[in-house]
Amino acid sequence: MTDREGDALDRATDEALAILAEDRFPLRPPRTTGSAPRANFVPFAEDPFAEDPSAGPGPVPAPARPREAPRAAPRQAPREVPQLDVPFAGVRYYDHAAPGGSREGRPITVPETGVDHDPGPGPGHDPGPRRDWRTARRIAAHAADALGSEPCALDRALGRTLAGPLTALTDLPSFDTAAMDGWAVAGPGPWRLPEGPEDAAGVLAGQDIPPEAGPLRDGHAVPIATGARVPAGATAVLRTEHGTVSQGELHANRRATQGQDIRPRGQECRQGDELLPAGTPVTPAVLGLAAAAGYDELPVTVRPRVEVLVLGDELLSAGLPQEGRIRDALGPLLGPWLTALGAEVTAPRRLADDAEALYQALSASSADLVITTGGTASGPRDHLHPTLARLEAEPLVDGVAVRPGHPMLLARLAPGRLLVGLPGNPLAAVAGLLTLAVPVLQGLAGRAVRAPERVALSGPVPAHPTDTRLVPVVRERGAVRPLRFHGPAMLRGLAAADGLAVIPPGGGPSRRAGVWLLALPWVSG
Ligand SMILES: Nc1nc2c(c(=O)[nH]1)N[C@H]1C(S)=C(S)[C@@H](COP(=O)(O)OP(=O)(O)OC[C@H]3O[C@@H](n4cnc5c(N)ncnc54)[C@H](O)[C@@H]3O)O[C@H]1N2
Ligand code: MOO
């Protein structure tokens, strides 16, 4: 790369960072209201999202609801609403880009207009038996039994889920080990060192000590390397920098206490100890631990097979949006996201808005979970509900009290075959993914649910009066700050986000207690 190309790259990087910085670093310092507790793994029954833990882990039955034939009513034209950049009116809102807001990001109050960003169900739209957000998650988590288990070689197990507890196949360390380079010493010093050239080399890592060598006798020492087996009889390891050799004798210039710098056998675990519970996702650290504990392969749950069907005549798979058509944003997003969740995903299939094509695709699919995007509403080209009725699918969740994404749905196509219908608006689809698809996949993979983190909000966030809101946020000085560009059709906020904050209906106690943060699988730290 030439200097000029290097400068151009630097400038482009600075510009990109400046755009991000606008969202990441507010002009007004946020108020922090506390620090978040550490996240833990908990069984689903203890999931704080679960609505009523005392109700037991069984699925919440969906009320029987006869499905109508395809609705003839055309989609209502959206009411004329002021295009506010804030979703709900009459609330104090920190946003330096909101209409009427100051460029300095001072709090503004949006006048009470009586309309919100999402006009919600219009006349003629049957919202169905909508579920509370937490209940929807709970139903989704219990909709499927875990798939079976299979052995998997360590080098292929990343991202899988432990089907059983990881028990140590050996003590760790498996022998008393020198923690430092120096000398293994027996008893108090000074110590005699071996004289023969072979013995003087001492014990190296990976070497075994021949049984005929016998225990190290009191008053004797032998050179030893970090990681080497400590000879029987040794009482400590004296570090190289703490000893001086003179005339074949080792003198300590700092006292070595009993057992110092010896890692005793079994210090980390004993053979048979449970190192990790079933349901743990296999991370690089788990692979390392498993290898250290003697595993060549791991028992993992079978990966859920997921098929993604992207519906919409208007969607292009390449090039610029044109002539009323737009790029499919969900095909590229869902595949890798689902893979990160441990699923085996077939390449997304794009289907035209054609009821017969959808019927054929759903009938032919043998996936554990089919995920569709679009077609969940009641517009003339929204074929999902009628097609599910034609397939005699069992509705488990038909609409959720969550914004965005409220038309999301979950249905059982047949025993062992589920369908999650994500709304077409991209952020609404992500809300559906996190609300329904993630718990279904965790259930199928038998994966433990990570307790969500509670986080403080760095400023007021509008709450919906009756629905949970999922808002892209960024971490900042011990709190989270809501990002702009969080409209249902936008991904710009999400792409810069560290997670989605869960704002309970009406705001709940979130101002004092903080809110839950739904983690994104690629965000670390
Ligand atoms: N009369 C009503 N109309 C609508 C309601 C309602 O309650 N009453 N709800 C609105 C809400 S909220 C949502 S969300 C959408 C859900 O619509 P669908 O799931 O049927 O999705 P589509 O109509 O097919 O698409 C909606 C929107 O999203 C765009 N889209 C679709 N797929 C993709 C994709 N793969 N990548 C990028 N963008 C996509 C599509 O072009 C539309 O703009 O219904 C509202 N209507
Ligand atoms: O607006 Mo819709 O809430 O699901 O995106």
UniProtKB/TrEMBL annotation:
Low complexity bias locations: 71-83
SMART domains: MoCF_biosynth (SM00852)
Co-factor(s): Mg(2+)
EC assignment: 2.10.1.1
Domain spans labelled MoaB/Mog: 307-443
Catalytic activity, reaction form: adenylyl-molybdopterin + molybdate = Mo-molybdopterin + AMP + H(+)
PANTHER family for this protein: GEPHYRIN, MOLYBDOPTERIN BIOSYNTHESIS PROTEIN
Stated family: Belongs to the MoeA family.
Protein name: Molybdopterin molybdenumtransferase
